[in-house]
Automatic annotation (TrEMBL):
Listed GO biological process terms: protein import into mitochondrial matrix
GO molecular function, a single term: protein transmembrane transporter activity
Key word Electron transport present: no
Subcellular localization(s) per the UniProt record: Membrane
Chain segments annotated as transmembrane: 125-145, 171-192
Key words of the record: Membrane, Transmembrane, Transmembrane helix
Annotated protein name in UniProt: Mitochondrial import inner membrane translocase subunit Tim23-like
One GO cellular component term noted in the UniProt record for this chain: TIM23 mitochondrial import inner membrane translocase complex
Membrane topology according to the record: Multi-pass membrane protein
InterPro entries (UniProt xref): Tim23-like (IPR045238)
Length: 206
């Protein structure tokens, strides 16, 4: 039976061997001396790719960074999902305790667990969704009221007004507590997101 001299196997189909003399393996790694490296698989120069450009399409004359209005949708949706997850876990835990204490078994217990899970999950999702909607709306109002200027003051102001508005129907004292909670949460978020700047400032001072 004839053997292929290059591969040492039947017709070169089994266990092929390639060497440096194979012209198919002579793929250049650089386009020209001093230029960037070529891809050995696609045989193109990555220098032609504009990697510094943003990965999304913005309107002509618009900012390349997403503003509060664009972020509002993800914030509201994410808050609803987080609320549903936390509330569902709380409802499931409470349902397990309540049904065990009541002695429910089988289908009755399963139905009660589903009721607990859905009730707590939907309530928590609605609560966090409303809070996120109020925060996003107030943040957008502050953003446009200050001449499309975005900084940490918008975050702190929107969070404080959200706490005040959310507890506005519960009395003056609870309204003030809600505002303080919103201000505290926003201050913690600002400190966490600006930790690198704070470290640089303290490093220059001391």
């Amino acid at each position: 039976m004839a053997m292929d001299n290059r591969s040492g196997s039947i017709f070169g189909l089994v266990n092929p061997s390639y060497g440096a003399s194979d012209p198919g393996m002579n793929v250049p790694l650089t386009s020209n001396p001093g230029l960037s490296q070529l891809s050995p698989y696609l045989n193109f120069d990555p220098a032609y790719l504009q990697t510094t450009q943003p990965e999304f399409i913005a309107l002509e004359g618009a900012s390349q960074k997403r503003g509060r209005f664009e972020l509002a949708f993800s914030q509201i949706g994410g808050s609803c999902l987080i609320g549903a997850g936390l509330g569902g876990a709380q409802g499931l835990y409470g349902g397990l305790q309540e049904t065990a204490a009541a002695g429910h078994t089988g289908k009755i217990r399963r139905t009660q667990l589903i009721n607990y899970l859905m009730k707590r999950g939907s309530a928590s999702a609605n609560t966090l969704g409303v809070v996120a909607f109020m925060y996003s709306g107030l943040g957008c109002l502050l953003y446009y009221a200050r001449g499309s200027h975005e900084d940490d003051l918008n975050t702190a102001g929107a969070a404080t007004m959200t706490g005040l508005l959310y507890k506005s129907t519960a009395g003056l004292k609870k309204c003030a507590v809600g505002g303080l909670i919103g201000l505290g949460l926003s201050a913690a978020y600002i400190a966490f997101s600006s930790r690198d700047k704070l470290k640089d400032q303290y490093a220059h001072r001391f």
